[in-house]
Amino acid sequence: MNKTSKLLALLLSGSMMLSLAACGGGATTTPAPEESKAAEPAQSQAAEPVESKAVEPAEKTADDIPDNMTSADGKYEVAFITDVGQLKDKSFNQGTYDGVKLYADANGLSYKYYQPANGDQATDDDRYDAMKAAVDGGAKVVVCAGFMQEGALKRAAEENPEVPFVFIDGYPIGLDNVAGISFQEEQSGYLAGYAVVKEGFEKLGFTGGGGGTNPACCRFGYGFVQGANAAAAEMGKNVEMNYSWEYGASFSASPELQTMANGWYTSGTEVIFACGGSMFQSVSAAASANDCFVVGVDVDQSFESDTVLTSAMKGLSSAVQWAVAKVYDGSFAEIGGQGTALGAKDDAVGLPTATWTMETYTVAEYEAQLADIVSGKLAIDADYETGLEQDWSNLKLNII
Amino acid sequence: MTFLIQQTLLYAVPLMIVALAGVFAERSGIINLALEGIMIFGAFVGVLFVRLMQGNPAIMGAFSAKQWVTLQGLELLAMLVAAVFGALFSLLLSFASVNLRADQTIGGTALNLMAPALVLFLVRIISNQNTLQMASGDAASWFMIKKTTLGFDRKADLGFLGNTLLHQVYLATYICIILFVVLSILLYKTKFGLRLRSCGENPQAADSLGINVYKMRYAGTTISGALAGMGGFVYALTTANCASTGDVAGFGFLALAVMIFGNWKPGNIAGAALIFGLFKCVAASYPSIDINGDGVYLLAELGISSHLYRMLPYIITLVVLAFTSKKSRAPKAEGIPYDKGQR
Q: What is the mean pLDDT of residues B203-208?
């Protein structure tokens, strides 16, 4: 063996060792590297180009504001802790972060997002580390997305009583510096279910994320069923719905989910409510293959795909801006320590009438329906645990 | 039935082509444990290529003008790029195991560990999250061949064969099947194939007859890398909506299992991949499978737990392996670094 090949051997084995060492380091959860990891992206990726430029330059949208900003003093006032799934999930995380960005940008504040380590397998410790990194990074308010943050939030909020926490999709946890903000997703789901049946669809589908343990997704689904049933009863016909928590436990896209959706569409389902973050990718791919439709969730997803009929929205962005504003105008005590449920009366749930592609169901009908919910004339049940598996008058529910 | 065949092919074809990749390496005497890693890398390169090309106004114009030929060309080009980079990536393995005579299992494992880490690192730099997607649209609207693509009416009935083979399919699937056949012939019916196989059985004898064992082994692993890289992209394109996540759901390892299960023979491998693909499809969509088209969803009405269906592909693999492994015979010299001085 000559010298060159020995040298190469050394280099190669060196690189193999390095890659092995890197993997070993990732698996153990020492808090120290996580913090540095969380602190780094802001500097290194500040030059990240904005992915999609908004069409109208007149009004500044969240997409015009970069995800990473660099503050002069290295402190970030408004911090955002993501839920499981991607930041750019074009749904829950992104919608919440849009609120952070919009408020911070409008008020000249520094902002930053923290993604708990270990992705979908993030533990309370990982989330706590992210929150601690946020507080240590100078956060004056921490926005936490997703009900799974509860455990970590208890610890972080108790240790930092002076820092207000906004708990989106949350509830009061007995601490005065935590404001729980939830949405009446059942109203949004109801409106969507009602709309698609009025539009003329008879075979619907619902696929939810979180494996049936996520209260927000459960309320969306339960509302969707109620709305579809109500519309079918009014029209005097029967509709059918496939209802599944099978895939997307971690709110991610997967080949299996795409195959399942493909199967539904092939066997006659016309529209599927894809309720959960990146799951939308799989369902819309299947819809596109079969020339069928999707109902989006959380934010208006009509820009993502031509297959989107409408989206069951909740006003994540505006709720975040509203709550963060309370911190800055000194009235946080009004919502701190309590749970606030935002619904149709707060203009926090609904369908995007400007971008929907409904042809039969009109905006006027929708407005009337919405007004009934706002006035309380039409009450929508949120108790999905007992309510879902009842005998629906005009709907056949296939729970898969 | 149409649905079942199409979905089975979607799962089976990447498995088949990657298992054949394994055959090429092992028949030349190199254990290519790195199939998974190469697939991940190939998927990443292919998706990145599509994403970059979408930034080109000419390509976007072709999409909005529905110039399907251009888009199918883009798909083929992306497959080619993925194959080239897969081959380059596999050179690391060839170099370690042919020139340096390193342990091939360790070398392959190192690549398997390196690929997801490297890909995730790059994906995060490029897209600031853990998934690299197409810049716009979805795989189906860009690359899928439908009735409308071919100029038929949306409601046109093309008969059973037409509906199955020409509607809602990807060109990549057929290219892979053709490649599979051509390469199998190459391996068994040509001079090159015979020489390659001899290097995996008795390299000393092959060398004594003037065959350059090192070259043959390089050829075997490079073809293997190219196929695995391409297979990775085809998997991402057809089943994962053209997204790269540093993960191919263990398809590289499954391909290894399929290869062993198919006894290192292309025909058996195709069969094994189809069985696995079929059960994978059944697992994910059993409630929507209407076998004879009479509107009765038999599998759903049996009332068996969905978990059982989801276990099926793996149970079947175990069972078949248990019955076939006795007969299975690996190439004799695989895994042994070739040393000219040894007799």
A: 91
pLDDT category at A29 given cuts 50, 70, 90 is very low
Alpha-carbon gap, residue A302 to A379, rounded angstroms: 28
Separation CA B174–CA B171 (nearest Å): 5
pTM above 0.90, yes or no: no
Cβ-defined contact of A264 to B288 (cutoff 8 Å): yes
Residue B274 lies in a domain: no
CB atoms inside a 10 Å sphere around CB B268: 17
CATH fold of A185-314+349-399: Rossmann fold (3.40.50)
Nearest to A260 among B133, B285, B297 (CB): B285
* Cβ pair A255:B249 closer than 8 A: yes
Look up the CATH number of the domain holding residue B53: 1.10.3470
Contact residues on chain A for B95, CB-CB shorter than 8 A:
8, 12
Confidence of residue B135 (pLDDT cuts 50, 70, 90): confident
Q: Which residue in B243, B288, B306 is closest to A267 by CB distance? A: B288
Per-residue pLDDT, averaged over B264-280, amounts to 91
Return the pLDDT at A203.
93
pLDDT digits (tens, 9 = 90+) for B317-335: 888 878 877 777 888 888 8
Domain that holds residue B158: 2-248
At B76, list the tokens: 């083929």
From chain A, the residues in CB contact with B110 under 8 A are: 16, 19-20
Subunit contact A305:B137, Cβ cutoff 8 A: yes
Q: Which helix (H) or strand (E) holds A350?
A: strand A349-350
Q: How many domains does chain B have?
A: 1
Q: Taking CA atoms, what residue in A is nearest to B114?
A: A19
The one-letter amino acid code at A285 reads A
B38-61: burial string, b at 16+ Cβ within 10 Å, e else: bbbbbbbbbbbbbbebbeeeebee
Would the CB atoms of A281 and B114 count as touching at under 8 Å? no
**Can you tell me the mean pLDDT for A139-150?**
90
**Residue A48, token pair as written in the block:** 């990240």
Residue B320 lies in a domain: no
Q: A1 or A99, which is more confident?
A: A99
Give bridge partners of residue A80 from the DSSP assignment: A113, A143
Residue B199 to chain A, least CA–CA distance (Å): 22
Domain chopping of chain A, boundaries? 185-314+349-399
Nearest to B138 among A5, A290, A305 (CB): A305
Query: B270 in a domain, yes or no?
Result: no
Residue B82 is assigned to a structural domain of this protein? yes
